[in-house]
Design brief:
about 400 residues, Aspartate Aminotransferase, domain 2, globular, alpha/beta, 2 domains, binds pyridoxal-5'-phosphate, Aspartate Aminotransferase, domain 1
Length: about 400
């Protein structure tokens, strides 16, 4: 991979070390220009007029997103966040009282809150699929948990608080074999791992733009499998995703656009498309291999920089590295890094409460690497970490 050329395309690389890619990564120049260009035109000719003028380009965004995960453009909905995508999918599927939704120990906070929210309306069961001794979903136990009353399997691919990669494809095979709808939170995997819908076997995939995809904040998307579309009944239909046809009825668009609403930022939508196009120019296997190489290097060396402990679990570990100091002070460590021009982040127990409670975790430090990062930057980070004083 020509890392230097990616760095040259990324103005944010110039003045700091960005290891908060699982928070929000740095956009390439083309994304920044795309958004600015649209906003300029929108300001000059008006919002509706600009929308018409850019109609073809906006249509192309669905195709770019679809190509990234080997899906069809008609299976893609452009939304504002992964949470919005997840909720849209979840609330569009029927769940009856007494049925069960299976989720992962790594489940993200807002997803689980969505389960709890709906449980106020429908008395269904939430069951957590236990993880194996390496920390990933235990597939043997999952097989045993399958029964006729499972309404949905909803799992998190890569959690907020660890480098873990859950076996999403294997879960997909179990879901498909048993005819159970499957919703995958791919918020932290899109743009990082090669993702192929036909291998994942999921019916829904929820993702954000701002993380590994390098799109602007305020963007996300939902994939919904074509065969599943007619079974969905989106929670918030409007005259964009559907049509009000009589005092008793409305119709829905045939494609995943039924999950969208009329009002959206076209500037950000086009920025998302530019990020997807840029992304499609990188080799997905190479990209992931390099990101993992950086993360493995950090995992190996962080403990030697002082009294730090790596907290990542799972058989396959990705570009996200979590650690803690045996002396505490996660926030102060983040500040120390920031004072030296290194952006990192923290993870909080509430982000993944099931796993955090199981492992007795408090706040953790998190560094997450992208393909525009380098080993040299990690060496600088390790040096700064070494100088950390309590
Ligand atoms: C695993 C996971 N799922 C979902 C989300 C929510 O994403 P968004 O903020 O785009 O709604 C996050 C955000 O950090 C996440 O880490």
């Amino acid at each position: 991979m020509d890392i230097q050329s990616y760095r040259n395309d990324t103005p944010g690389c110039l003045d700091h070390i960005h290891f908060n890619n699982a928070g929000a990564s740095l956009p390439p120049q083309v994304v920044i220009e795309t958004v600015k260009e649209y906003l300029d035109i929108e300001a000059r000719i008006g919002g509706y007029e600009a929308m018409v003028m850019f109609q073809k380009k906006t249509q192309k965004v669905y195709h770019s997103l679809a190509r990234m995960i080997h899906a069809k453009a008609s299976e893609m909905a452009i939304l504002q966040s992964a949470t919005q995508a997840w909720y849209n999918a979840f609330y569009s599927m029927p769940i009856r009282a007494g049925q069960t939704v299976l989720c992962s120990e790594a489940e993200y906070g807002s997803n689980y809150m969505g389960l709890l929210r709906r449980k106020k309306e429908v008395d269904f069961n939430i069951k957590v699929i236990p993880s194996d001794n390496q920390g990933q979903i235990d597939l043997e136990i999952l097989e045993k948990m399958i029964s006729a009353d499972i309404a949905l399997i909803a799992i998190t691919h890569i959690p907020t608080n660890s480098g873990l990669v859950n076996p999403a494809e294997e879960v997909g095979r179990i879901a498909q074999k048993n005819g159970i709808p499957y919703l995958l939170d791919a918020c932290q995997s899109v743009g990082q791992l090669p993702l192929d819908i036909s291998k994942l076997g999921c019916d829904f995939l929820a993702a954000t733009g701002r993380k590994y995809l390098r799109a602007p904040r305020g963007t996300g998307f939902l994939y919904c499998r074509e065969e599943m579309l007619s079974r969905t009944d989106p929670l918030q239909p409007d005259n964009w995703g559907g049509q009000w046809t009589s005092l008793q009825e409305y119709t829905l668009q045939a494609g995943a656009i039924r999950f969208e609403n009329f009002e959206k930022s076209y500037a950000l939508t086009l920025g998302l498309g530019a990020a997807a196009e840029y992304h499609l120019e990188t080799d997905e296997e190479e990209r992931y291999r390099y990101i993992r190489e950086l993360a493995d290097y950090a995992r190996k060396n962080i403990p030697e920089s002082g009294s730090f402990e790596i907290m990542d679990i799972g058989k396959e570990k990705c570009g996200i590295v979590t650690f803690r100091s045996t002396n505490g002070g996660a926030k102060a460590i983040q500040q120390h890094l920031s004072d030296h021009g290194i952006a990192s982040s923290l993870t909080f127990p509430a982000g993944a409460l099931i796993d955090s409670q199981k492992r007795g975790l408090n706040d953790l430090n998190r560094v997450s690497f992208h393909y525009y990062n380098t080993k040299k930057e990690i060496d600088q980070f390790l040096e700064v970490l070494k100088n950390w004083k309590y």
